[in-house]
Amino acid sequence: MSRPTVALLIEMSRAYGRGLCRGIAAFARAHGEWNFVFQECDLRSGIPDWLSNWKGDGIICRLYDPEFAELMAKAPCPVVDIFGRIQHPDIPFLDTDADAVAEMSVRFFLNAAFDRFAYCGYPGLWFSDERGKAFSGHLKKLGFVPEVYQPPHLWESADVAARESLHVGGSPELELWIKSLPPRTAILACNDVRAQQLLAVAARVGRRVPDDLAVMGVDDDEVICELTNPRLTSIRPDTHGLGYTAAYWLQLLMQGAPLPRRSLLIPPLGITERASTDVIASDDPLFVEAARFIRSNIKLGIDAKAVVSQIGCSRSTLEGRFRSLLGRSIKDEITRVRVMRARILLRETRMSVEQIASACGFATASHFSRIFKESEDITPGRFRSDWDGCHSSMFVDSEAAD
Q1: What domains lie within the chain, and their CATH numbers?
Q2: How far is CA 309 from CA 234, 259, 297, 323, 338, in A?
Q3: How confident is the model over 181-201, as pLDDT tens digits?
Q4: What is the distance between the alpha carbons of residues 186 and 198, in angstroms, rounded to a whole number?
Q5: Crossing angle for the helix pair 330-348 and 365-376, to the nearest 10 degrees
Q6: Which residues contact 276 (CB under 8 A, 6 or more apart)?
Q7: pLDDT confidence band for 52 (50 / 70 / 90)
Q8: CB 281 within 8 A of CB 214
Q9: Are strands 35-37 and 5-9 parallel, antiparallel or unpaired?
């Protein structure tokens, strides 16, 4: 088969779109190279003029409105959507899993001892509403009811870029909402742009981040996250995996082969922690100092005795604070932080099990493996191989695909 020519109708103005394109390019390089046709665009660029006369083999796109979706459904070549908004019945699609995004953020906030939560999105935008619904759902199962931002006007526009630029520095209504939140509230924003607006409003109305409010975004757009003050913590979507899998699906369609499924939601990779959430959500100074000491010294092999010695109070007093605020002992919290750190290293590095054990403060690799298995119900090696199986080959790379 000669090199296929593939059109990419993907906005590249943000890190999310560029990540998708990198995943697509990685698949193409690994499977005989493709010729690509694309142009710089954003979601408001419309349907390119050249598309009506284009003669190619496949299209990977981001379907942003029904008119565009209907046009793509009638295309003379296979099409894969990598947006998930329209979900046209004749076009397979992939997207980031909103429920997994919500669950990850809730777990992060709870482990930092927050017990007040809020969600801020762009009501009426599908991805924002999905993430907000999932965030509220996970919290309500645990007995928490988050504050959800509801503007006085429901904006009709479903144009993401238009909604983001409507109040770049935040609206007066958003100011009132930020002012109304109680201290030590953990806020999930629907994306990094919304989170940036929240941080700007918080500074303007005198709410300190992260001391008064903790803010987390979604998309981990490094440029946006580094330009905020404080720098923004954000959830990392697996854009590379999304792009790679979309390219694999397109190759199957171009070869006339069936797809493994018609839709796929891929969970995010993790959370990039920055200053906007760097706080222990408690007004108990002993607990806060102890929790920070554990986080900062986890690789040193500290134990509960070392934590108590650092804080300078009785073991029973500090144990009581941990059980009251976290529902677990000092020893259990040390183990939890070590295992969470190990999960990150297993996913994101090629360090050996022995190296990871040392980096996370375990005495030996065998001790690390035993504790990890007890906590996660899986060995470190199996955890890594399962992760690699889902995110390196992304359900693909079988010989049948070539």
Answers
A1: 5-95+239-266 (3.40.50.2300), 98-237+271-277 (3.40.50.2300), 285-389 (1.10.10.60)
A2: 34, 59, 14, 18, 20
A3: 999 899 999 999 999 999 999
A4: 12
A5: 100
A6: 195, 199, 209, 210, 214, 215, 216, 228, 230, 231, 232, 233
A7: confident
A8: yes
A9: parallel
